[in-house]
Design a protein that fits this description.
Chain lengths: 435, 456
């Protein structure tokens, strides 16, 4: 009995705490060769008139003279371009269908502390948003819970699969914390009297203290669980799913995405993270230009975006959000671009392009939605560029995917060709034919 | 005060002189007369004075080199809520057609400046969609830094906002505690509100006609009581006010068009009209325009069938179609939505450019003055550093009536000045506070009296 318990506890520990990586879509994939296309691997120079071979879910060969295996399905890519699928580092795809219809929305759990909420268990593989997003070349998203202070665990998913497990690439991708925000009254605000200001500070301090407490409890819980796993004489205790979910966070085994936009909030969030030695990814980061040194010194990556959004202060430069990516690039801080959208996650490339319109080199803009997110999420061995051995997740386009006028012609995710229709194309075709 | 300072800081134009400006050697997207490579645009007295390859200008003209750049007309946004002070919804009645948005406009909404930076120069400012009939709208130009009276486009047609579907039936709002839901609560009720308003207006007009006739015959007559709402409704029936109707589903679109035919009014522009593609021919037959979004879908049940192909399908059905924003953010890059009308449904480049320039100008009945680069039209233009349908392009300079209201180079200089000024002011504030503290410490009595505090 005691042995079974110990094994059970270990199993629980490994399943709940360890970062799981799930292989999706088992089974053989077809062999496909795209030839005569301009191949843009992202991590190396473009190849004119090149060939790329997709075999059994991975890229088998790539190059100007790559051999096409016998029996391969050959696609003529003359005049076309091959890019890796794009990755949105912050999205709600899979968790929402109609934003105003509560029954279809699974983005935010009640209460402030939901570290045990997992996007992975609520992804709807048959959401209409999935095809709408992927036919524009966005093949992967980090589907992210929202709300409260600890929102829950995101999942990196591919936008293809019959069941949620088939879609999962990595879960949890990260724990998401909406770091408490200290708001001071703005000029002309009726509530700028001292009492109200005190109240705001009090509630802010209370929230930060609660967050600190729950993380300290998780540290203690982790130690106790480890002690008991080692020595069965240590007193038994009831499981606590909230703390259990936070153990890998306080042990630095899974990253924490700190969502913060204003400089003050970013500083507070980073200082707080130092206290617990958290493995931090900063997200949102509208004011990142004001805290470049603090971010750089900690060597943490930033999920920038949405780029197509308004600055928060009326005296912010009109182009603040368009120029942030260049600021990070110039400072040598790793970053990826995200939409934080759901229905329009398909516009990810245009968020990136808008940063390029304001000084970010075009190649960097492309990297910010391909290889950089793959690196930040720890999946660069499989995703984010076209390299032999990586996932056969590629898109065939008639131009630069960051240009709106470019059309994505074909999409392959993990070696499988994706149908190019969606709710939108089907309705389009239906009403084109209205008699 | 801070807002006023800010407004001054961003205000650029020089006024009072009839200046002549020549933009030379640019690619000119005229919209109505094709593309002119290495073209020039001459601006005099706020109007476009000449367009073409060989345009001469007086020696005193300000010359802007447009080499490698693109000139296009200012983008016109037929759905804006920018510059409205407070709420955009009067809300309290199903029909609040008597209220006017022009009475609640401010000239210190920074969004206007940001839109100039995206090449947008004019907009229709509308009420919200909480009521079946929300109120009278206003056409403006974003003359940032000028008094609000100057933003208002003089002699522009009068317009009014109607709304159908989920919003006027309060589907997505819960009334505050203790308050009942307001009528209407169904699409049936929305139709009834509009129908009854027009029937009442017919009665109101008949009462006045009767009174006028009696007076003409020198009979004793008591004038009907004036009613500002009924006068508004009557002016719609007289064709003096254009209807801009917020709508989503195909059924409610057809409902309004049929009601219009039955009761004798016209719908000028269907707003949002996300299912317009299902009934494009009905819309075209009525002669209504359509101002829609490309991307927004799924944010509520009635937006679930919205598709990005809507623009192209309606254009193909012969509907006068524009893209508009309903958003301070999207209003900054409506050029993206024009490009998407090519991507989704294959409009030509020329057709795509029209959906954010001449088409909205026509919907607002201002196409004799706005929406294209033609001699005699208002010089509302933007110079882009690349093709405006490219996501990599941005605006360098925006003109309204020949005056520069946005210039990127000047913005970069001014923001640095602003930053320094702010820094100095903050430092002064901190220094003053420190000095005051020091003085207070010096003056404070050594033994403060204990006991009850004096009355404060």
């Amino acid at each position: 009995m005691r042995k079974t318990l110990a094994v059970a506890l270990l199993l629980i520990a490994s399943s709940a705490l360890a970062q799981s990586t799930i292989l999706n879509n088992p089974g053989r994939k077809p062999v496909i060769a795209i030839r005569n296309a301009t191949i843009v691997p992202v991590t190396s120079a473009p190849i004119a008139n090149g060939t790329i071979v997709l075999s059994n879910g991975t890229i088998a060969a790539i190059g100007a003279n790559a051999a096409i295996p016998a029996g391969a399905t050959v696609i003529d890519g003359t005049g076309l371009f091959v890019y890796p699928g794009m990755i949105d580092s912050g999205s709600n795809v899979g968790l929402v269908e109609m934003s105003s219809v509560a029954g279809t929305v699974d983005t935010a759990e009640l209460g402030d502390f939901n570290p045990n909420s997992m996007a992975a268990v609520a992804i709807n593989p048959h959401s209409e948003l999935v095809p709408v997003t992927r036919v524009n070349g966005v093949t992967h998203v980090v589907s992210t819970p929202e709300g409260g202070i600890i929102s829950g665990q995101s999942a990196l998913i591919q936008l293809a699969g019959w069941t949620p497990p088939e879609m999962l690439v990595k879960t949890p991708a990260a724990m998401h914390i909406q770091f408490p925000r200290l708001r001071s009254a703005t000029f002309g605000d009726q509530s700028q009297d001292e009492e109200a200001e005190k109240e705001r500070k009090k509630s802010y301090t209370r929230d930060v203290d609660k967050l600190r407490d729950v993380l300290r409890d998780a540290q203690a819980y982790g130690k106790a669980a480890a002690a008991r796993a080692k020595d069965r004489n240590v007193e038994r205790f009831d499981r606590d799913l909230v703390l259990e979910a936070l153990v890998p966070v306080v042990e630095g085994r899974i990253p924490v995405v700190m969502h913060a936009n204003l400089a003050r909030d970013i500083r507070a969030a980073l200082t707080f993270a130092d206290e617990f030695k958290l493995k931090v990814i900063l997200a949102g980061a509208q004011d990142v230009g004001r805290v470049v040194d603090e971010v750089k010194r900690r060597n943490i990556p930033v999920l920038l975006g949405p780029i197509l959004a308004l600055p928060q202060r009326e005296d912010d430069p009109y182009d603040l959000l368009f120029t942030n990516a260049k600021t990070l690039h110039d400072a040598g801080i790793p970053f990826a671009i995200q939409t934080t959208d759901a229905h329009n996650t398909r516009n990810l490339p245009y968020h990136a392009a808008s940063a390029a319109a304001f000084g970010l080199p075009k190649e960097e803009a492309l990297k910010a939605v391909t290889i950089y997110p793959a690196q930040i999420w720890g999946v660069a061995d499989r995703l984010g560029s076209l390299e032999v051995g990586k996932s056969a997740t590629v898109i065939l386009t008639d131009g630069d995917p960051l240009e709106i006028r470019t059309n994505v012609r074909r999409v392959f995710i993990a070696g499988e060709e994706i149908p190019m229709d969606s709710r939108h194309t089907l309705l389009y075709e239906k009403f084109l034919k209205r008699p | 005060m801070r807002k006023a300072l800010l407004a001054l800081a961003f205000a650029l134009p020089l006024f009072g002189q009839e200046r002549v400006t020549l933009i030379r050697n640019a690619t000119v997207l005229t919209i109505t007369n094709g593309v002119i490579e290495n073209g020039s645009v001459l601006i005099r007295g706020g109007k476009i004075a000449a367009v073409g390859r060989d345009v001469s200008a007086p020696a005193s003209a300000r010359v802007i080199d447009g080499t490698g750049k693109f000139v296009m007309p200012g983008i016109i946004d037929t759905h804006s809520h920018t510059a409205v002070e407070g709420s955009v919804n009067e809300i309290s009645l199903p029909n609040t057609g008597m209220v006017r948005i022009q009475d609640a406009l401010t000239n210190d909404d920074i969004s206007a400046y940001r839109q100039l930076a995206g090449g947008t120069t004019a907009a229709l400012i509308l009420h919200g969609s909480a009521n079946a009939i929300g109120g009278q709208s206003q056409i403006v130009k974003w003359k940032w830094g000028r008094p609000i009276d100057e933003w208002i486009v003089k002699d522009a047609p009068r317009t009014i906002k109607f709304a159908l579907g989920e919003n006027p039936k309060s589907a997505n709002f819960r009334p505050p505690e203790g308050q009942q839901r307001q009528y209407p609560a169904t699409r049936m009720g929305v139709e009834e509100v509009i129908r009854k308003s027009f029937i009442d207006a017919r009665d109101y007009m008949a009462a006045w006609d009767e009174y006028d006739a009696k007076k003409k015959r020198n009979e004793t007559a008591i004038p009907p009581r004036r009613d500002l709402l009924m006068e508004t409704m009557a002016d719609i029936l007289r064709g003096r006010i254009d209807i801009h109707a917020h709508s989503y589903r195909a059924d409610e679109i057809v409902m309004l068009l049929n009601l219009a035919d039955e009761l004798g009014f016209k719908v000028r522009e269907l707003q949002h009209v996300l299912e317009g593609y299902k009934v494009g021919r009905e819309i075209a037959k009525h002669g209504a325009g359509a101002g829609t979004f490309i991307d927004w879908w799924g944010y509520k049940a009635e937006a679930y069938d919205a598709i990005p192909y809507n623009v192209a399908l309606m254009v193909r059905d012969g509907v006068l179609t524009s893209v508009n924003s309903d958003s301070d953010e999207l209003a900054r890059h409506l050029n993206h939505d024009a490009a998407k009308a090519m991507k989704y449904g294959g409009l030509t480049e020329e057709e795509a450019l029209r959906v954010c320039t001449i088409n909205p100008a026509r919907q607002l009945r201002l196409d004799s003055r706005l929406g294209s680069i033609e001699v005699g039209k208002d010089a509302d233009l933007a110079i882009w550093n690349g093709h405006p349908l490219s996501t990599y392009s941005r605006v360098d300079t925006t003109f309204i009536e020949g005056e520069v209201y946005f210039d990127r180079a000047q913005d970069l200089v001014r923001r640095e000045e602003l930053r320094k000024e702010k820094e100095q002011r903050l430092k002064k504030e901190a220094d003053d506070a420190a000095a005051a503290k020091k003085d207070a410490a010096k003056d404070a009595p050594k033994d403060a009296p204990k006991g009850d505090k004096p009355n404060a």
